[in-house]
Design goal:
By secondary structure, the protein is an alpha+beta fold. The protein is built from four helices and four strands. It is globular, with a radius of gyration of 15 Å.
Length: 140
């Protein structure tokens, strides 16, 4: 795992007060956006265990989520909308949608991942509600 950054890769001011507690298991993201940001941070740090644990079991891939041999450099995250999508459709308290653009480099070439991610909140063992990444679509 790479060195833990001082500022949070998701754009937060401080890793220890932003996504750090989620990745260490000390806290649980309270919103779909917080989970999405923590998952982006987990990708930047190569934390496949966190990504697997926060991916809904019904859609979680069987193969490893992080390829340790892939020379991938994450460059930044922009949350396009969480609120706008909520205003467009009626959500129950247990599902949400977050649109984001993540920028990265692979093999010296820059790329953009533009995704509208769906999240679901379920109460698991111990009675604690948790958000899970369900799936995503890729707008043109």
């Amino acid at each position: 795992m790479p060195k833990i950054p001082a500022s949070c890769p998701c754009g937060g001011p401080s890793f220890p007060t932003c996504c750090g507690p989620y990745l260490s298991g000390e806290a649980v993201p309270q919103t779909a956006e917080a989970l999405m940001r923590s998952r982006y941070t987990a990708y930047t740090l190569g934390d496949g265990a966190y990504l697997s644990a926060t991916w809904h079991p019904s859609t979680r891939p069987d193969e490893p989520i992080v390829n340790e041999n892939e020379r991938l450099q994450w460059l930044g995250l922009e949350v396009k909308s969480a609120l706008r999508l909520r205003q467009r459709k009626v959500n129950t308290a247990d599902d949400d949608t977050v649109e984001f653009v993540a920028r990265y480099k692979i093999g010296g070439r820059a790329h953009r991942l533009h995704e509208v991610s769906r999240f679901v909140r379920e109460t698991g063992s111990g009675g604690v509600p948790r958000w899970y990444y369900l799936d995503g679509s890729f707008p043109e």
